[in-house]
Amino acid sequence: MTNWTETYRGAVPPWQCDVTEHFTVGYYFDRLEETDANLADELSLGDLPRRADLSRRINVRFARELRAGASFHVESAALSVDAGLHLGHRFVDSTNGEVVTWFQEHWELSSSPPTSQQRETIAGRLAVWNGPAEELRPEPVTTDGFVPTARGRVKSGDVDTAGHFALGAMVLRFSNASGQVGAAIGMDAAFMQQQRRGFSTFELTLLITGALPLAAPYLVETGIGHLGSSSLRMIHRMTDPRTGAEIARLSQFGVNLDLDTRRPARWPDDIRRRAAALIVPVG
Q1: Is pLDDT of 1 > 70?
Q2: 3 neighbors 80 (Cβ within 8 angstroms)
Q3: What is the pLDDT at residue 217?
Q4: pLDDT at site 113
Q5: What gap in Å lies between CA 221 and CA 266, rounded to an integer?
Q6: Of 44, 101, 183, 199, whose CB is crowded by the most CB atoms within 10 A?
């Protein structure tokens, strides 16, 4: 527990659960913004997490579900200050102390390197990561084959304290995009309700390379990077449609979940056939 500090404590409201009947992934990132700000205070980093030029890589592994009414807290720590800043967060079930979700972050600090005093503070507070190792997934070799899955504009309720598209709001848009993919392959609302199925994410990797201000337009396009017997990896790209510049990319790996047994279920043949048409080359 040394050098891990509590950065959030709360519960899962039922209105923040999705059709899969568990805590929606976007709200994990909503809480992450709070934990990052609190950890930045602990490490004397000021407003660094809110800088528009901060490039970030966030890897998430879901070990167990959080469902409506669950109480949880987050423990956070700096892991390394070499080649950028590496942070870790553990989402913990407050009832039994079990870690249910692991977050690893890498902040690219070349444009705003920490001062010698900040590096000294961080170096004196480093913790050891005891979570799962990050698995690097292949990236698309081209954007050909990606289809539009979400489009809109940044609204007043979407921005963080610095006025940029907030992490949680961005990931909620990616979640909406996954719903569009589901509809395209036949995993639509009727299928999920009649068959008692849902898409359950077990791994996310979010790359943030830009920022969008209030009222800016956004476009999300998606391709499928992996199709297994019960699993699916979606790759979402968020761009500014005015310039084509990529703002964020999300790799979302999950399974077709039987909502009654809470276990993975095989994809029906028709869904597999339609999903195969959306596979994009990766390498």
Answers
A1: no
A2: no
A3: 98
A4: 81
A5: 26
A6: 101
- CA separation for the pair 74, 88 (Å, rounded): 10
pLDDT exceeds 60 at position 5: yes
pTM over 0.90: yes
In 3D space, the residue among 145, 92, 139 whose CA is nearest the CA of residue 233 turns out to be 139
Encode burial over 232-264: b for 16+ CB neighbours within 10 A, e otherwise.
bbbbbbbbbeeeeeebbbbbbbbbbbbbeeeeb
CB neighbourhood size of 136 (10 A): 8
Q: Quick check: 2 pLDDT over 80?
A: no
What lies within 8 Å, CB to CB, of 183 at 6+ separation is 189
DSSP H helices in the chain: 25-42, 116-123, 167-185, 189-195, 269-276
**Could you give the 3-state DSSP secondary structure of residue 153?**
strand
Query: How far is residue 155's CA from residue 147's CA, in Å, rounded to a whole number?
Result: 24
Location of structure tokens 């609190």: 38
Structural domains in the chain, sorted by start: 1-133 (3.10.129.10), 135-283 (3.10.129.10)
pLDDT band at 112 (very low <50, low <70, confident <90, very high): confident
The residue assigned the tokens 């930045």 is: 40
One-letter amino acid for residue 131 of the chain: G
CA end-to-end distance (rounded Å), the chain = 38
Torsion of CA 132, 171, 166, 99, to 10 degrees: -30
Q: What share of the chain is helix, strand, coil (3-state, %, to 5)?
A: 25, 40, 35
Q: How confident is the model at residue 47 (pLDDT cuts 50, 70, 90)?
A: confident
